[in-house]
Amino acid sequence: MNVALVKNDSGPAASSVFAAAQGRLPGAGKVADIRREAFAAFERTGLPHRRIEEWKYTDLRALVREVLPLAGTPDAAALARAKVAIASVAIDGATKIVLVDGVVALELSDLAALPSGVSVRTLRALLDEQSNESRGDLLLTKASDPMLSLNAALATDGVVVTVADGVQLSSPLQLIHVATASKVARYSRSHVLIGQGARAALVENSIAAEGAAAYQANDAAVIWVGDEAALSHVRLMRDATDVVNVSSELFTVGAKSKLSLFNMTSGGAVSRLQAFITLAGEASELIVNGVNLLRDKQHGDMTLVVDHAVPGCTSRENFRAVLDDRAHSVFQGRIIVRQDAQQTDGKMMTRALLLSDEAEADSKPELEIFADDVSCGHGATAGALDDSLLFYLQARGLPEKQAQALLIQAFVGEAIEAIEDDDLRERVIAAAQDWLEARA
Amino acid sequence: MALLEIKNLQVRVEEREILHGLTLTIDAGKVHAIMGPNGSGKSTLSHVIAGKPGYEVTGGEILFKGEDLLAMAPDERAAKGVFLAFQYPVEIPGVATMTFLRTALNAQRKARGEEEYSTPDFLKKVREISKQLNIPQDMLKRGVNVGFSGGEKKRNEVLQMALFQPSLCILDEMDSGLDIDALRIAADGVNALRSPERSMIVITHYQRLLNYIVPDVVHVMSKGRVVKSGGKELALELEASGYAQFEDAA
Ligand SMILES: Nc1ncnc2c1ncn2[C@@H]1O[C@H](COP(=O)(O)OP(=O)(O)OP(=O)(O)O)[C@@H](O)[C@H]1O
Ligand SMILES: [Mg+2]
Predict the structure, then answer these.
(1) What is the CATH number of domain B2-249?
(2) B52 contact A CB<8A
(3) What ipTM was predicted for this assembly?
(4) Number of domains into which chain A is organized
């Protein structure tokens, strides 16, 4: 066990993974240069650890220890298993895009019948095109982070989705990540562009096919929300329980737009969603809600960096963690208000419900305010279920577990209620209910 | 036949004995009032009957329909017919009142091996009761007691009592915080539930409530014991002379 730790600290393990992956990574020339530079950037820190401020509470060097080899291209048997797995999350009427072990599975996706105004290309095809030199930007981001660099180095596939200006999608786009292989890593990178005045819902699921275990997922999404556009993005992370999932999302939001992001993590041994959100156009509204439902020794981290770059935007971050056994939840929220960003209204609230004495919740709010006419604030609470509420319910006939479940539902409901679409909200409530029932 | 028999009950809270050998028998169909100074242990008694954690019973017993009540979890007691209308009903944000009522009613029915109510039957029942108690429908759409006035919370307790049809109702200061009209409406609701099978313990400081809910027996509690019992005229006597006469007896 210690051997892996030593190997990782000194580098060769990860670099041999990168070397071995070369033949499978799309893009030559400048794209390959960008990958090499990204890998070098990763290697400067290796797996992020507690001495890197942004990773203080999620020490991957201690929790994960090694970078696993790149997953192979899924074969017919893997695709068949993936097909079975997606049936449990597929939304009727949604436009499904399925990635199996980080590779777009055309046969499981609905790309042949896209709604009008929606285009989808695969990252692999775009990077492999003759004129690929200019597409290296697909692997570049403004934010820098070791795991994002590793993603740029090893991204195998992904999709580039465009919703044209003014298009109002009546049913969601659904991006489903399925793992079929064990003890391997997947890296995907997708781009989503919501055109000016367009409106869309994007659901993202991460699930494991039967038998897939101990994999590593590193999925990145780069999302643009145009002026006067609206995007509701709902993520449901239900990986296998011994899995590492580090997802990065980068949003740029235009003027008079609305972005609503919801994430619920109930799977994975070690999970992190890091979202970097730039409010780049005036008078926009950002709503972020997160829920961690964790038990055993699960570790879940939601890290948000919200950059108010222009005046007059509103941001609301609301996070709820329900922690049983020895689970550990982390919420980090940084709000940056640039000098010009007057009339910024930014608030964050995080609450943890500790169902066990051994569970742990950390929260780190940070406000970096350079403008003077702003209203910003944060709050945090952590505690057990309220005994007097529990007793009231029990005195009315609810058995203890049922009384607890009702209160836990109400607690996470404070975040889930932000999902405006009735069908999506009901799905999320049902997913939370599944978690609760597994408890009883 | 006795519905509830409390024999020599001794209860401690945080190492301090609050009830010092309390004995009380309540027959089926009877309404007993309990009066007594602040801190004499009235709410403690009601909590122990309902099964609230945090109370250590160090002696005595409670039999309910002949069964050992203290051995039952609070939800079992509720299913068996014990109902406590709280002195201070809690607010439960995020749990819709209707969801709560239906979940609770069906949990009790399930525990008794009865069939669960269908949604239309349930809704009809709640509508009937809330109309009698002058509780607006939109109040029931809110979280349990959330944003309810003190009086509305008390009326919501009576609503639950009418819905669950318990065999023992304990009303802990139902009259506190109620205006005169609300008191009359709530008392009418309680009186409508009086029946030969159902007993009530009405805890109050004021004779006024007992004008509406006329008790069969009145007990005086002081310092953790029942120090005097009598008919409804005992309440009038207390109203006139106060509790000073019992301080020594206790
Ligand atoms: N959780 C507790 N911890 C410590 N002492 C308690 C606790 N609960 C009750 N007591 C004490 O027990 C005694 C009886 O309290 P109780 O609430 O039963 O009185 P009561 O008769 O209902 O009074 P009131 O008329 O004011 O409602 C009081 O002295 C009170 O301070
Ligand atoms: Mg009291």
Answers:
(1) 3.40.50.300
(2) yes
(3) 0.95
(4) 1
